[in-house]
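Subject: Sanity check before I submit

Could someone independently write out the structure tokens for this chain? I want to compare against mine line by line before I put it in a report. The sequence has 216 residues.
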Amino acid sequence: MRYVIFANGVLPMGEAAKDLIGPEDVVVAADGGAHHCQALGIVPQVVVGDFDSLAEDDLAALEADGAQLIHHPPRKDQTDLELALLYAVQQGADEALVLGGLGARWDQTLANLLLAAHRELRGLKLVFVHGGQRLCPIHGEGMIEGQAGDTVSLIPIGGDAEGVSTQGLEYPLEDETLHLGSSRGVSNVLLGERAEVRVKKGLLLCVVLRGQGSGE
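---
Independent answer below. Compare away.
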């Protein structure tokens, strides 16, 4: 079961976001992410958060359209996106696609990406889509999908990633360590439509950028 979660960040793909939603997907808005849904003409099944980004009129309209509102107190320990992802897991989701999860606020952007290391979300296939970029955590084994020439970066989070091996990337790794804080895994290249990554210990954040990205 896949949940599509709209967060309250930037949604650079605009109307194209609707093409990512399948007929069987459950759509959840994390608080102000409901504004993206309204702009796209989508009614989320569920809206989760403390609703500090939604006016009373917005909430009334969402509820009138059939959305379930799950209200959390404003003095809470989790972001609205974290609450939405935990809700999805509790409902039996095995996959979550996050739209609008990144944006101008670096604190929330970093916190959202680091949800990949959340122990309660480890069984969830978590993917962030931001324009032409896809971001997902890899622990154990993972498959990278895209097109030949796409830029692929493998970034360790939460500590060193040990025993990293890849197949299908221009610069292969064979049972090597990617150290936390090192940029060694940045800007590899996908040779075909798929590549495989194996990690014996640790967690990688995989970023796939459509086409060749500019170097730094």
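---
OP: Matches mine. For the report I'm noting this point. The CA atoms of residues 32 and 55 lie 10 Å apart.
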